[in-house]
Each structure stands twice: as C-alpha cells, then as structure tokens.
Amino acid sequence: QVQLVESGGGLVQAGGSLRLSCAASGSILSINAMGWYRQAPGKQRELVALITSGDISNYADSVKGRFTITRGNAKNTVYLQMNSLKLEDTNVYYCRAFSTSNYWGRGTQVTVSS
Length: 114
Description:
- By secondary structure, the protein is mainly β.
- The protein is 0% helix and 56% strand.
- The chain is built from no helices and eleven strands.
- It has strands at residues 2-7, 10-13, 18-26, 33-39, 46-52, 57-59, 67-71, 77-82, 91-98, 102-104, 108-113.
- Strands 2, 4, 5, 6, 9, 10 and 11 form a seven-stranded mixed sheet that branches.
- It is globular.
- It starts with a strand and ends with a strand.
C-alpha cells in the first residue's frame, strides 16, 4: 500500500507560480513512477507530468516549458513547479504513484485568477 499526500495548492494570479508537493509513504520501494494529473469539473482527469524512478520525465503539451516535475532526495517526494500560470491551469491536481497497483492522492486545488 502507498499513501500519497499533496500540498501546495492555492490561489495565484495569472503569470504567477506555485509549487506542489506530493509525499509518498508506505511501500515506497515498489513505486516505479510518480505523476501529476489534473481534473476540471465535468472533464476527464488528464496527465500533467510524469517522472520515473530513473528520472525520465514527460509532460503534457499544454504545460511544456512552464511546469517542471522533480523528485526529492529521499525519492519519496515529487514536486511540480508551475510557472507562468494561466487561467486554464485552474484545476484540482492529483498525485499518482505507479506501483504494483496505482495509487492516488486526494488532490489539491489550484486556482488561477485574472
């Protein structure tokens, strides 16, 4: 079992920055990759960024050049640095861990205002 706790969401003006954190606990050695997803009301959850245990990262086209996913030194924490935020980045952001099963955090709200 893996437990995920996200933090760092909030309200920010367009053009601003936020840093999300996701801390994993439990069977963290079984985690192969971690990622950030987001979901707006009435829409499907979509991939934002993913990072593997080998530090290979992948991004949605909509966030390339603005968002950066990294892992902490302890490898059980993943961060999402979000710069140049746009109104359309407003979403609930979820952390996901890929292991023998898939695990999700409860989400953190990011609201970008004009």
